[in-house]
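It would be a great kindness if you could assist me with a short task in structural biology. The matter concerns a single protein, recorded as an amino acid sequence and a row of C-alpha cells. The record follows directly beneath this note:
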Amino acid sequence: NHNEMKRIILILMAVVLLVSCNKEHLTVGVYNPEKKIASIHRYSPDHSIVLTETWHWVDNKLMKIEAGDSTMAFTYDSFDRIATITIRSKSEHHIIKCVYEDNKMMRQECEIHIYRQDTLARSYTYTNTLLYDGEEWVGMCQERSYGLREDITYPFEGENINGWLNDLHYNELHQIIRLTATPSDKLSPYRGLVYLINSGDEPLYGRNFWASRKMTIDGETIVESQYTFSGEGDYPRHVVERNGQGDTLFIYDYKYLDD
C-alpha cells in the first residue's frame, strides 16, 4: 500500500551518499576533521531507545564505527582517501568500493547481502555515480540491480548543502523526495565523510550542522525536525531534536578525542 511504499522509500534513503565537496574544494574521499568524534550517545526522552556510537581512530584515520549490532570499517588508499567501506549487522552485510579518477571520486560500487535468521535471503548490487559541474560535485545517480534509480541533486548556498532533491523511479513508481534544511552556527564534525550508517537521520552535509530539516514525498511532509544546542565550543555537544509540534524526539551527546 501507499504507506508501506513510503516506509520502504525512507529505508532506501537511509543510505544516501555523503560527500563533502564544496567551495573550499575539499579532497573528496579524505576525512580528517578538526574535531574527531569519540562517541555519540543517542536516546529518547523516556530512554526506551538508547544507542551509543563509538568511533575508533588510528592517527588521523577513522578505522571503525560501532553502533549497537552494526559496525562500519574503513580502508584507505595510498593518498589517504577512503577506499572501501564494510558495514555488518545481524541482518545485512554491505561492501562498498570507492573508485577515483583524476583525483575525484567518480562512483561507489556496492554489494548488499540480506540475511534472515543467519541465512542469506537475497543479494543485490548498486552503483552511486557522482555528478560534477566543472570542479564542483553537485549530485549523484544511484542505480540498483533490481531496477530502482535515484537522481539526486544538492543545492549549495555558500559552503553548505541545504538539503537535496531525489527524483526516484522504480517500475511504475515515480516520486519526488525533497529535503530542505537550514544551517546552524555549529560546525559539522562529519564534513568530508563519504558514507554513514544512519545518514537519513542525521544533519551531516556541508560546513555547518543543521538547525532544521523537513522531508516531503510528492509534497506531503514525512519528517520535520528542529535542533537546539547547548555546551561550549564551535562543535555540537548536547543536541536536542524536536518534531514540528515541538515534542522532543531524541537527545544526542557528543564527545571528542581531545575532550
